[in-house]
Design goal:
The structure is a homodimer.
Chain A: H1 6-13, H2 18-25, H3 30-39, H4 42-51, H5 54-61, H6 66-74, H7 78-86, H8 90-99, H9 103-113, H10 120-123, E1 130-132, H11 137-147, E2 156-160, E3 166-171, H12 172-177, H13 184-187, E4 195-196, H14 201-210, E5 215-219, E6 225-230, H15 231-249, H16 262-288, H17 291-296, H18 299-302, H19 304-327, H20 336-366, H21 369-399, H22 410-432
Parallel strand pairs in A: 1-2, 4-5
Antiparallel strand pairs in A: 2-3, 5-6
Helix pairs in contact in A: 2-4, 6-8, 7-9, 14-15, 16-22, 19-21, 19-22, 20-21, 21-22
């Protein structure tokens, strides 16, 4: 298809959803993609670009001139436009904005560039339909008609007073059902949920999820309506947050992707590896205290990985459940004391079962009673202690205002390795009487 | 407030959003909650119940008679109603449905109960606005008026032919802007994305996310419009899926919550613990092959936890990045070969840094050159091998059609523990020449 058959490509792609064209382009190289994009209507082309994955997008835009990018921005909502601008080198941003034909849009973009991209102001679009509370329905419909081209999706019309202060909202359904000469003031819903521009994106997500909103108006500190956040942007935030949590649990310290450079990926992975290393060295130091014992009973060394691995697994399981409980805030329904009791019960059940299995297998294969008792006792204690650590650490971190998810990662594994070793050698020391 | 001051409570809660009342109720016991709910308008009360967390909800509904539950169902969309029914004992479900006053609603509920709750049919609501393609806009608006009470949120009107086959959609915006006597057939958009009832919920989420849809029509195998899925339901699915992935990574084998019974939690945690145990026992068996060596050089045992922990950490980091890459399908843009090369580069960078740190510390603290070389060489090799395992395992699982996220959990840790031991003792064996 890439023999530059203009008409054929144009015909084939006509009516195809931009998201599907995007998928197609991601398999082409930059030059071919650019060629295809230029055949498309800029309206469609701009939507294709916005659907591209972030890395691919910014790589891709390097092949376009500022003029060409400005044309795309002309056809995009301001929130999507700002995403594109944020992916450009700072020097290029202003140049592109001055080239945007629609002056209102250019103003929107300049406005939005001021916000950090993880707060409400950075998520919102400036395009929305607002109606003065003194208007009639007919006037409001005229306004919708006028704005229809700029605003892609209308969920509600926001009602403001003469100073632009947000008063309430009217759903489209209500507008359709109202008489043409009814006044907005008579039909609007005063209970509108809004957020201020500086609100964190996590809170935005929670608000929209809690109240099942598909659009959330954003106001400035004086209550003036300045934008709206739509549900599709929030979906992306949710997906990103879940990814970040998982990376945190895996000991990757900053948001990296497979496509990042070797050095960025290495750097993101190194901190937790070094912490694990320090833990391992402390463990080595600790075991070295038992050097003479190991020389006499080398079998003691055999079960070191068994103990540390089980401690790590149990700790991560416990902390994950607690972290998820905290996120769902069901924590308030259970007191910390009840939590700990339950955790203890689960640990005892699992600890007893694991200890019996290990005791059976060790006695069967070595017929060394002392080592079997040592290992199974230590294992049972480690399960208990690791559960306790896994439960209490995220709770403490949460109380300190630290994201408790960090505790589900290498942190808990490293701590439990050391704890496991201590328990194991303590039990061995007692039983062997060395 | 719980001195049964009816009027006061009613006044206070008037106009409060149902989601906020729900939060309040979650801190009360079942009896107090029931009392408050009965004071509320059933319209509001039903929305409060649907916002309750699943466990609390079903626990809570035990205190209501079938008649009372039926009243709530009368005020809920059919998808929310089915959620409530699914939380009831099977014996009670039919009784409640026969008590639902609105016969159309009762029919909807019976219909929806047939679907599994993880497919499109189980997510959809039957309430929607459909218009025959021959209608005029005016007729369509009349229909919206008639249905307005039943359908909470209208995003689009779906256009069907005389047999109910889905033809397209018209946005509310378009209806407002059209002339009253225009025909639906002239203004509707034929490009409507729909899913069939049996489509998996994950695919539903992907479709809605990809095309930025706030509602997705559901059709049966013959193309007949049977329901629609709204974005708020999909948000819940996304959150659930993310939780499941994290639990899978933590070695919790089925979807459990903190509130589940001790036995259910223990059972969900046991399988991976046992697998870890078997890994640990194999490790013990393996180390025992070097019993004589350890008796001579006990220092060899000191660094076992260091090696296994680093192997585990590196493996999980690698597999997480690959799993997330697979989920974002950016995998297709990079060949597997390039992936492996990059992984190798990252592993070399990290491996060299870690090996140098360890060599320095060990030589400084023990001045035993042989052990320093052994440990740092083994560490470097383990980082390389664990990266390789962490990269290749999810890719293989994915090719076999298994969810690759399972590889990020205890599986990779256990495998890498064994791998690490093998490398460590192999290197030690060579260097010590034992």
């Amino acid at each position: 298809v890439e023999e530059r058959k203009d008409d054929f490509i144009r015909e084939t792609l006509e009516g195809v959803n931009p998201a599907d064209i995007t998928e197609l382009l991601e398999e082409f190289d930059a030059e071919d993609s650019k060629y295809v994009l230029e055949l498309l209507d800029p309206e469609v082309g701009s939507r294709v670009i916005i659907e591209l994955e972030e890395d691919i997008q910014s790589h891709f835009l390097e092949h376009f001139t500022s003029e060409e990018i400005a044309v795309f921005l002309d056809h995009l909502d301001s929130d999507d436009g700002v995403h594109i601008l944020n992916g450009l080198p700072i020097s290029k941003r202003e140049e592109v904005i001055t080239l945007v034909e629609n002056e209102e849009k250019a103003g929107y973009l300049l406005d939005l560039l001021r916000y950090e991209d993880d707060v409400a102001g950075g998520l919102m679009a400036k395009e929305l339909i607002k109606a003065n509370h003194n208007w009639t329905i007919q006037r409001c419909i005229d306004e919708i008609r006028k704005q229809a081209e700029n605003v892609q999706k209308i969920y509600s019309v926001y009602v403001v007073d003469d100073n632009g202060i947000l008063l309430g909202r009217v759903s489209l359904k209500r507008i359709i059902l109202a008489e043409d000469n009814a006044k907005i003031a008579d039909i609007y819903d005063e209970e509108v949920i809004a957020v201020e521009t500086y609100v964190d994106e996590e809170e935005v997500v929670q608000t929209m999820q809690k109240y099942d909103l598909e659009a959330l108006p954003v106001v400035n500190v004086r209550g003036k309506l300045v934008g709206r956040i739509t549900i599709d942007d929030v979906l992306d935030v949710i997906t990103e947050q879940a990814e970040e949590d998982i990376q945190m649990m895996s000991g990757i310290s900053s948001d990296v992707e497979e496509d990042d450079t070797v050095w960025i990926i290495s750097k993101a992975r190194l901190p937790w590896l070094v912490i694990g290393l320090v833990g391992g060295l402390l463990g080595a130091k600790f075991i070295s205290l038992f050097e003479t014992e190991i020389a006499i009973v080398p079998a003691m060394a055999f079960f070191i990985p068994l103990i540390t691995a089980t401690g790590g697994n149990v700790g991560i399981q416990s902390s994950t459940l607690i972290v998820q409980g905290l996120a769902n805030s069901s924590v308030f329904s259970n007191s910390i004391f009840r939590k700990l009791v339950k955790m203890l019960a689960v640990a005892i059940v699992n600890g007893v079962i694991l200890a019996i299995i290990v005791f059976g297998i060790v006695i069967f294969s070595t017929s060394d009673q002392t080592i079997a008792i040592t290992v199974s006792t230590a294992l049972f204690s480690v399960v208990l202690l690791a559960s306790f650590m896994g439960t209490i650490t995220p709770l403490i971190l949460n109380n300190l205002g630290v994201n408790p998810a960090i505790a589900s990662g290498p942190f808990i594994t490293t701590a439990n390795d050391l704890l496991g070793l201590a328990v194991y050698f303590f039990v061995a020391h007692q039983l062997y009487g060395l």
